[in-house]
Specification:
Distance between the termini: 47 Å
Shape: extended
Structural class: mainly alpha
Oligomer: single chain
Number of domains: 1
Order of helices and strands: HHH
Largest sheet: none
């Protein structure tokens, strides 16, 4: 039971950290609109982000469970992307 709770906390913390970019993007778009439309754009953007996050998480977990080679390949892609971002940061 403790392992499950720790996993849930880890996933929740990671999800909160990753959702900050969605919040910034949605806010940037909404700030360009008249005040009467901002609430609708913010609510719609948050709702769509939540729906897509839930859907892609379900699909991803199912794929990783069924396709054994996908987990190391996805991990490798993440390492390459991270290294690329670090390289770009220090190159400029």
């Amino acid at each position: 039971m403790r392992a499950i709770l720790l996993a849930i906390v880890a996933v929740a913390f990671t999800d909160i950290a990753l959702q900050l970019d969605n919040a910034i993007s949605i806010s940037a778009i909404a700030s360009t609109l008249p005040p009467t439309q901002r609430t609708y754009v913010l609510a719609g953007g948050v709702l769509l982000a939540a729906i897509f996050l839930f859907s892609f998480t379900l699909i991803g977990s199912e794929l990783i469970t069924r396709v054994e080679w996908l987990k190391p390949v996805a991990g490798g892609v993440l390492v390459i992307l991270g290294a690329s971002m670090i390289w770009s940061f220090f190159r400029h």
